[in-house]
Amino acid sequence: MNSIIATDNISKYYGKLAAVNNVSLNVSEGEIYGFLGLNGAGKTTMIRMLLGMIKPSEGKAYINGNIVNAGNYRLWENVGYMVEMPNAYPELTVYENLEIARKLRNIKDISVSKRIIEKLALTEHINKRSKALSLGNKQRLGIARALIHMPKILILDEPTNGLDPAGIVEIRNLLKDLAANMGITILISSHLLGEISKTASRIGIIHQGKLISEFNAHDFENLREKTVLIEATDNNRAKSILLNNGYKITESKSVLTCCDEKAVMHPEKIAEVLVKNECPPKSLFTRNEELESYFFRIIAQKEV
């Protein structure tokens, strides 16, 4: 598949500080790429370089195969974006702000502003000044402005910031619909691990300016740790039995944990060993590592 958004060994230095350090990424057509990292990890700096707002110290950024150049106005005809806190004219209404965006994009269809207002659930605020909007609705207005010309590429920095749970689900469903049914290529950044995992088709983790992990749902199955949790009638005895049978066991509160590959592949063997030694398990199940645990584990490994 063609790379719609790409960087090639891109870096950004502020003095000796590397805000972004030698990052290469490729986002394919119709993909939702989730850029995940803690605050200050380099997400916004990456997005600003992709949009030509700041120049990289090293490397190059590409949109639709073209080197990013802020002065190449044709490059931005099919790009919609929102970076950090969305800017709007505070004294103008939601509708007036979108009308300005429509006219700046030279869109002739005068009904487009109202359609996008409806799509972003802003109808009841259509005549409200933007300065009076809640943080969540300011986000909606920012996304509406990014979508006013129905771009083929959408780049959004923390798009669900300030939204309530229902609003987060609405934006998630909107983005997935745009990618699946309209072929729009989307790059979003976030520090919300759970939301990224539900929205993105591929995830890149950035930490201290470096892209330290990149995966899709299938890859994640192989990356995340799997453990077997055991609660026996006598945990101390069960632990001794399993250690004597070559299993690596740790104990936490009332549960024994085993992450040996042989245990994960064949947890029933653990049950057989315990039953044979007259110490049957009360419960035994396999637990898969969640994205949050993987995220903090991989970050900790990089800091060692």
Automatic annotation (TrEMBL):
The keyword Nuclease does not apply. Residues 5-233 form the ABC transporter domain. SUPFAM superfamilies: P-loop containing nucleoside triphosphate hydrolases. Keywords: ATP-binding, Nucleotide-binding, Transport. Belongs to the ABC transporter superfamily. InterPro entries: AAA+_ATPase (IPR003593), ABC_transporter-like_ATP-bd (IPR003439), ABC_transporter-like_CS (IPR017871), P-loop_NTPase (IPR027417). The keyword Nucleotide-binding applies. It comes from Clostridium kluyveri. This is Bacitracin ABC transporter ATP-binding protein. Pfam families: ABC_tran. GO terms for molecular function: ATP binding; ATP hydrolysis activity.
